[in-house]
Specification:
Aminopeptidase; binds (2S)-amino(hydroxy)ethanoic acid; 2 domains; binds manganese (II) ion
Amino acid sequence: MQTPSSPDALPGLRINRARLLARLDALGRVGALPGGGVSRLALTDEDRRGRGLVIQWMRELGLRVTIDAIGNVVGLRPGAEPLAPVMTGSHIDTVRAAGIFDGNLGVLAGLEVVETLNEARVATRRPLAVAFFTNEEGARFPPDMMGSLVYVGGMPLAQALATKGIDGLTVGECLKRGALAGSAPCGDPEVHAFVELHIEQGPKLEREGLTIGAVDGVQGISWTEYTLTGSPNHAGTTPMSLRRDAGYVVANVTCYVRELARELGGAQVATVGAINLKPNLVNVVPGAAVFTVDLRNTDEQRLQEAERLVDARVRAVAAAEDVTVARRTLSRFAPVRFDPAIVARVERAARELGHPCTRMPSGAGHDAQMLARVCPAGMIFVPSEGGISHNIRERTAPADLEAGANVLLRVLVELASG
Ligand code: HGY
Ligand code: MN
Ligand code: MN
């Protein structure tokens, strides 16, 4: 085994594109949807099967696998010295009708880096770890990035386990059902540095003809759930002036948040993504409604202003309709800056490998933003075709997947040699 002092000692070392694509394809078949794409909501049976496949691959690569109490999985490749590892990884849970790259690329590229080093008989000074974190999407159990948030001590384990999902089951119940929790202490191993490869999920890299994004931060995220209580009534006999129509309030706010994002401009985005009307029947005025508002901005002050304006609107329109309002925060993370030295390493690796690269913020939340609380962290983006994600048509060209994984290889070897 050779222990390089830097990736420059391994000039021709490259990942194996076909092997990476084959793993992406195999994992993409777990929870595959008939019309394409995949559905592996956190802690479902599909997620459990996906976990089993990735853990099997970790073990086949000789990694020492540990699982913590919220189901975070870490595969450790020993280093020449028993130091804190350099970690890479992401998530393998998905939204309901997802593509096969969101999260999965980061985990499987990490395994591909390990296999490439194994084949080249390269030992790194520091251990290397490949992780996947539980419930990154947060679509079933809010908040998003729950597993990595617990890993870094940002959310008490008990609170996470007690979190009730959109289908009424708790995280703890689902971990137990699938026997997905392990005995490793949360946050173990302590991490020296963390780098995550992920698809951009937006249009920038493709539009600018670039291959690599050196991600310098993640925008702020605000998820709120509103519960509205009006009064169900007959759609035919109830005069418009006597209605307490919760559905009308939701519709008004849904249009308002879109207008607000346009008015605030800049990085502001706003989405009413989930709406549940009760009783949700053609001939009954909706007496109750539960809906969510997802607001994001790279600027914390602007994000707080958007939150204030949306909340004021909900309350004003509800009051005029004699509808009561209850509000629950599902997720709230301020913008995060990644470690400038790691951002620079990503840029340098891209340049040395001949891939056009730009610095950019992330519009989506990622596990790396949680690891950034405890160690230097950064991310590598590759283009999403048409900027599409959280959609079964999500796609990244094989050459771009390979480029991202080679940049990851270079940055990990550099960090693990230091
Ligand atoms: O919603 C997000 O930003 C991520 O996909 N969890
Ligand atoms: Mn993701
Ligand atoms: Mn996602």
